[in-house]
Design a protein that fits this description.
By secondary structure, the protein is an alpha/beta fold. The protein is built from nine helices and eleven strands.
Amino acid sequence: MTYRILTLSPGSTSTKVAVFEGEKALMRENVRHDPAVLAGFDRAADQLEFRTATVLDALAAAGIALESIDAFSGYCGGMGPTKGGIFRIDEKVCEHVLNCGMNHPAILGAPILFDLAGRCGKPAFAVNQPDTDELADVARITGYPGVYRKSHVHCLNQKECTIRCAASLGKRYDEVIRRVGGVDLQLLGIGHDGHIGFNEPHDAFDLGTHCVDLAQETIEANKRFFDGNEDLVPKQAYTMGIRTIMQARKVLMVVNGAGKAEIVKKAFFGPVTPEVPASILQLHPDFILVGDEEALSLI
């Protein structure tokens, strides 16, 4: 089935908007705004109604009815450092970005998309944000009690860059990894159900990069990244497959806390089974497990 998707990105002096049907672009428009008009707004947030109207005008000029759009997506600044991926936009997201203290039109992405989607009863999504925080727990340690690192930087999302690189080369994600020489060091955590990456328990080991339906336990564990709101947690994810992980030259897993003790014992002192995906690491030639006393208490 082919979907019609509207995507947009509000910039300092223009709003970029496009509509795709599958991979076919039905319209691409860089709507430039008169600097004199923009100067009349005290804050970027005050431009919301104006920018929304310009998007609607661009659609009308292209002969595309708002009701024909299946979903709305785009760049949404001001969301703060998030995990990479796709997020459903709702009232809470809009309220957050409009009051985040950032005075740049990028904060209008989510509210514009949510407004347009609401007019025709369709969903709106923020996709692969540039401001991501996916540091492993061990990378957050500073050496000062109670002080932890976090990633908060305006840069291109690495996942999106790799996806685009693979597409431009006509190759799959895994082949791009092979072309650059493979993975030297694979840093992993482990889920309470034994998943690594987002390779959930299954009846077979998934080999390549693939899309997975997240287990409820994984959704629960990740809602801490979304202010505890389970509804905002993505229900699917793309993950590096078991084969690519196992092809890394060295694999380092870091675990901490008593809550991981049972799964550590099950994964590394039990049978190798796809029902416990991490157990495959028993077969890796250069695997190191690092954990605190609580996490390793049962072995």
